[in-house]
Structure formats: structure tokens, C-alpha cells
Amino acid sequence: MAADAGVVETGPPIRRARLRLSGFFWRRPWLRAIGLLALPLAAFLVVYVGSLGVLFVSSLWTSSSLTSTIEHTWTVANYRTIFSRTGPYLHIAAFTLEMAAAVTLTCSVLAFPLAFFMARVAGRRPRALLFVMVLLPLWSSYLVRLYAWQTILAHNGAINWALNGLGLPDQNLAYTHTAMWIVYTYVWLPFMVLPIYAALERIPDSYLEASADLGARGWRTFRSVILPLALPGIVAGSIFTFALTLGDYITPALIGGTNSDMIGTVVYNNFATNLPFAAAFAVIPMAIMGAYLLIARRLGAFEAL
Amino acid sequence: MRRIPKRSRVTVVALAAVTATLALVASGCGGGGGGGGGSTSSGAGTTTTIGKGEGSLNVVEWPYYTYKSFAHPFEQQTGCIIHRKDAGTSQEMFALMHANGGGGGGQYDLVSASGDASLRLIDAGDVQPIDINQIPSWKEFLPVFKSPPHNTVDGKHYGVSVQWGPNTLLYNTQKVKPAPTGWSAIYGPQYKGKLTVPNNPIQIADAALYLMQTKPSLGIKDPYELTKSQLTAATQLLINQKPQLKRYWNYAADEITSFKNGDVWMGAGWPYQTLQLQGDKQPVKEVVPLPTTGWADTWMLAAKAPHPNCAYKWMQYVTTPKVEAQQAIVFGETPVNPLACPYMDKIQKGSCAAYHLNEPASYYNKIKFWKTPVPQCGWQKSNDCMDYNAWVQAWAQVTG
pTM of the prediction? Predict the structure, then answer.
């Protein structure tokens, strides 16, 4: 009984204190924002921006070839090696860029109709089924899927078996750039489908009706209404496919043949013995992504976000 | 280019001394560290025994290098339970030992390093000298593996040789007719698009060895000690070879898959791949055209090994003739201890000869064993040879 009475008595002051506190923050919105963001922001700065900074700084050091220890003398020698006209690295960076561009383009061309069908045509059940089908490959390991593709593309694999069945000659697909392009398109496709789906699904039906009321036919509506509104989704998807391809080193090793080294391969081959050089080469895809995002912003890709 | 900074040398010796004291192997190792000269025979009379095992042994290994069939009896005898970290490439192996402050990070005791990683590990201070007199079987080894340049520096042994093998020319007997006889088979256009070679900068040494035979004017004396112009010539040979290749293989399993799938008919490989493919009833054979390059593996003691007694016990155990024979048959490689010969024949008839363990010394001298390229050219006493980083960059020029 006494305890109950105590609660009743101390209740109001607590409530009053709470009110005072929330009033304090309400009058100072900047403080409220800091309070909410401090922890995630600190983590972001330290873990993400901080490590990128360390990456960049270490790219300006060199490595002793004997002891593999880092020598803290400032130099741009690593970048000079990368941008040397006679060296292999510019060619490797260009190939990586071309592959990423080709994969992104193919993925968006394949993903758009699929995402459109899922978002605007299919009923609830077919849509759920398509979702499962798009996401199903992500349930198995990336490595398992690459080895599966190795057997599909092999000289005596499924593709040549099917071709021979149709009376067509063998194709030498295994360990080629074409093979890498096919495999990358396959493994990154879900990352393109989902953002485009999200963008298309958000377009209100009324926009399409309005377009029709104003006399626009299907193609015109698609070009002037749907595509601009879907663009942020396509750009978001392309950031995934582009960045994932830029950083990968496993597909070149398992699916690629000769001339298949990519930026990731060079980073992998150097990180143990020549960390600063690996860091310098890792800066390249970041610069490319930065430029890519700037261009995307210029194109207005983020205005509809 | 410099030799290792003195500082890290001192650290290695200090660490070795500290570990040795802790491990109760004081006389041999401590003497080597303090005396500086470290001639191996001097400590022979003063050998003490290794202390009690610490109950655990953590190894960075090639897959199957502590295979259960021969590792299990060791675990029962010594109480040292083996914890394995498999590495697929020399690159991964070096990275594992060099991580977390190096020296095995205080986590790993031993690493089964091949010759293209061992000098890197020594120079980086990741491994420490051992007292070779603690390994009784060492005296029985083939002479070339007692103090090979890839694991013995200035008379200090940074581990004990364990197994070796030649680099072989593997081919599909149904597709490649007549059988190849020399390494020219993988540089010519006859089997264009059906060839494979390892994706490893040390492959440049194979090209250099081939050039030693075919272009004596280049003056290559040692395929692992190349001047700039010699490295350029070897790189050019490999660039010219590239159109003939289907792919570069990264892991032994990749080459096996490519042979099975019919994508590749001939390539440079190891006896391991031949053994696996033949076990799968694939029509393959190997030849070893001499001279050739070869690999030799060393169990090396991590600089910060937490279980040095178990590590010594393993090095003692794994080099005994019977275990050498068991491991050789499991992996398809050759012991460094010739007394393993009768045991090999007992497990698999004729295997001693098949794995070249009964050859004369002249045979082993024709195999140029992997070693990490360093700036010092032993043959011309100068520092203008290309180092490993230069080899990595040259290799990128080939594969990129």
C-alpha cells in the first residue's frame, strides 16, 4: 500500500521532467538530430570513410619487395605504374570497365520487361512466383553457381550437348570473355530486377490514365511517363551491377580464359606482397564509381528519389 | 634494393631465442641465435630433447598435408591435436602467415611453404630458424634437400624439407598423338586453344629455363635470377604463348576440371593432377622433360608459434621414412628421405621408381627448384636481378 502511494507521488515529477526534456529538444531540432544520428554517423565515419581514407593514404606508400613491409615514404609511383602506357594495368582497367558496362546494359535490358510484368501486369500469385524465381539463385553460394556454369559452358557441357542435338556445331564458349559476360549477367540480374520493380510499382495508375486521356498511345506513355519515372530504379540497379563487376575477382579466375584479368584480380595478386600497389589499384574503381554517380546525377536520375 | 633491414633480423633472432627458451630447446637454438654464425654441425653434440607437447598444433597447409591417415597416429602418440587451415595458392599461404602482425599472428605454428613463398616468409620475418639437429631424419635426406637455398639462409635452417615434385607435362593420350617429348609442345601452335599453364608468376621461371636451352645468347644462368632484359625475354615468350592457351589454371582442381571437360588437352601441371585424373579413369599421362622446374615444400616454424614443441614433434614425425612414404602416396609427390623407398613400394608396388626417388644425383641436379626471386644474383654477385614484385608485374603483363 505504501509502495503504491510512493509511485503515485513520484509519478508527476517524472512526467514533468520528461515533458521538460522533450520540450528542450523540440526547441532545438539540431540537437535532436545530433542525438539521433551521432552513433550511426560515427560508425559511418570511422568504419567507412575512415577506412577509405586509410586505403587512399596507403596507396601513396611503397612496399619493400623483400620483407613485404610497408615503407612510409610518400610517392605516386604506384599510380605511375598503373597509368604507364607500356604496362598492362590501363588495359586491365579498361577491360573491367567494358565488362561492367556490357553487363549493366544487358542486365537492364533483360530486367526491365521482367520487372514491368511483375509490377504492372501479373496478378498476386504469378508475381509472388516470379519473385521467388528471381531470388532463388541468391539462396545458393556464388561459388556453386560459378562451378555450375563451368560445367554448362564446358566443351562437353550442356550447351554443346544441346547444340549437337539440334545438329549444330560445337561452340567454344568455355573460358572466354563471352562466358564471363553471360555469367556476370546471370549472377547480377536479381540486383537489377528488384530496384526497377520498386520504381515501376510506385508509378500511380492515375498518371497512366492521365497520359491516355491526353491522347498518348502506349509507346508515348512509355517514353514520356514510365521510363523517366523508372530511371532512378534503373540507375540504382546499375550501381549494383556496375560496382559488383568492378570489384570481382572470382569470375575471371574460374570462368575467364586468357586476357581475363580484371581490377579485382590485380588487387588479389598484390595484396599480400605489395599492399600499397593493391590499394592504389583499388582506388581506381572507386574513382570510376564516383564519376558514374556524378553523371547519373547530371542525368537527373536522383531527382525522383 | 636492400637486404632485409637489420631491425627485423634482430627481431627474428630475439623471437627465436625467446621461443626457444620457453620451449626448453635452449642449447641448440639459443646457441645459433647468440653465436651469429650458426653453422649447423657445431651444435650436433649438444642436442637436448623437445619438451612435452602443448596439446595443439595449428598449421597453414596445402590440402592433405596433414592427412588423417598419417596424422592421426601422430595425434595419439603426442597428444598434439592438429588444427588445419588449408591454402590454395602460395599467395594465400603467405598472406595467412603475414596477417595479424606477421609471424603466423601468434595463431599458427607451422606452414608447409613451397619454394616460391619460403624466402618471402624468411625475409618478412614470419618464420624463425630451427635447430636442425632436433630432426633426426634430416641426416638421411637426399643431399639437395638438406640445406636448399629456398629454406636455408646463411647456414640457418628455417624449417625442414618435406616433399617435392617435378613440374610435369600432362596430356590427354587420345587427343595428343604422338606423345610430347619436350617443353616446346606448350610453346608451339600445334594444339592451339587446347593448352593450359599455371596462373603463377613463378611460371616465368619455366619460360626462362626453356630460353636457357633455346636461346643461350641471353646468358640466363639461373631461371629464378633474371636481369631486366632476361625477364623481358621470358615475359615475351609467355606473351607469344598466350594465343595457344585455353586458360591459366589457378587451383589444381581447375586443371583437373578442364581436362575432364575436354576443354584442355595438354598443360603444365603436377603429379597430383595426373594421379587424380587417372584415378577417375581419364586418358591422361605425364612426362617430365628434363631439365624442368620443380617445387619443394618445407615445414617452416612460425616466428610467433604458440606450440613450438608440437611443431618440432611434427617435423620429426613427418620426415621419418614410413610417414614420408605415406604422405607421398596420398598426395602424389616424392619424399626427401630416400629411406622411404621400400615403404613406398610396400604401399604401392613400383611407386618408388615411378616418383623418381631412386634416381642418381645427376637427375636431381636437372630440376631447378622454385625459389623466390630476389635482387641478389648469386651467379654474378650483384644486385641487379629483378625481385618478386617485378615478377608479379611482369606476370600481369602476360595474363592481363
Answer: 0.78
